[in-house]
Amino acid sequence: MTHWPLPLPMHRALAAAKAAAGLGEVPIGAVIVKHGQVIAEAHNAPRTDHDPTAHAEILAIRRAAQALGDERLTECELWVTLEPCAMCAGAIVHARIARLYYAASDPKGGAVEHGARVFEQPQCLHRPEVYAGIGEAQAAELLRAFFRERR
Amino acid sequence: MTHWPLPLPMHRALAAAKAAAGLGEVPIGAVIVKHGQVIAEAHNAPRTDHDPTAHAEILAIRRAAQALGDERLTECELWVTLEPCAMCAGAIVHARIARLYYAASDPKGGAVEHGARVFEQPQCLHRPEVYAGIGEAQAAELLRAFFRERR
């Protein structure tokens, strides 16, 4: 069976997720791309950083905004290994991310296609284009392996 | 007419909001209290910091978690001058804030009693106690004055 090759940003997001697992953090990784260039990448780090907001998406958005010297990430893409939660979906709106690509769905914590459905709210100021499922199997397996070891 | 005096943390959150306006930032302030002691305060700073996540609540939560050396803010109260957005409500959940006090409601951007209603989602992992309207008139007037000047 031939698999369609994963786009490079999702490869890098998965590699960042793997690095998080090595540090005892839930394996989630994120990459921000502008005009085909990776401008920021990050993994989940709330335990290491003593920071409940240190999700991969938040860290990647903060780094990209620093790199660009602009609070708006217009024309940027966010690639992340798991469906963003309400906090991260809200940050995506504030940052004006143009396109969101995520791998695995998250029925428990996700807020894009589940729960708070942040982008579907009538008052939502900015709606990114959303593409789900790219690298889903790899991202889900990383999470399963992480929680299996900890049980 | 006698007004019930505002609790000290809301006074300080309003003072932080005023400081934000002086820097050209939307006037919103937040304070975190643990066992009667203020352990962090912050104002809105996305423009100054080039950081779309730099809402008063996020900055206060990050500072409090740093101060405690813990990603969980159990037994802490968050006092903020405006109803939190989806991003900040999500951060409040992740931080396990025990009680949320906010001044003005925000029908456009709020996600507590409006829009995404983050704490009312069935999958929401942690629900703070919520008290609204304390200092509402002062907080709303700060925001009105700020936007009036900019029109």
The largest chain-to-chain contact, stated as pair and per-chain residue counts, equals: A-B, 45 and 45 residues
CATH architectural label of chain A: 3-Layer(aba) Sandwich
Overall, the morphology of chain A is globular
* Major β-sheet profile of chain A: 5 strands, mixed
Class of chain A in CATH? Alpha Beta
What is the tally of helical segments of chain A?
Answer: 5
Physical arrangement of strands within the biggest beta sheet of chain A = 2-1-3-4-5
The Rg value of chain A, from CA coordinates, equals 14 Å
Q: Give the terminus-to-terminus CA distance of chain A.
A: 33 Å
| Secondary structure tally: strands of chain A | 5
Relevant CATH superfamily of chain A = Cytidine Deaminase, domain 2
Residue fraction in strands of chain A: 15-25%
Low-confidence stretches of chain A: none
Summing up helix and strand content along with how strands pair, one would put the structural category of chain A as: alpha/beta
Q: Any idea of the CATH topology of chain A?
A: Cytidine Deaminase, domain 2
The average pLDDT of chain A is 96
Cofactor (chains A, B): Zn(2+)
GO molecular function (chains A, B): tRNA-specific adenosine-34 deaminase activity; zinc ion binding
Function (chains A, B): Catalyzes the deamination of adenosine to inosine at the wobble position 34 of tRNA(Arg2).
Keywords (chains A, B): Hydrolase, Metal-binding, tRNA processing, Zinc
Walk me through the structure.
Chain A has 151 residues and is α/β, with parallel strands linked by helices. The first copy, chain A, has a single domain, classed as Cytidine Deaminase, domain 2, CATH 3.40.140.10. In chain A, 38% of the residues lie in helices and 20% in strands. Chain A has a 5-stranded mixed beta sheet. Chain A is globular, with a radius of gyration of 14 Å. In chain A, 52% of the residues are buried. The model of chain A has no long low-confidence stretch (mean pLDDT 96).
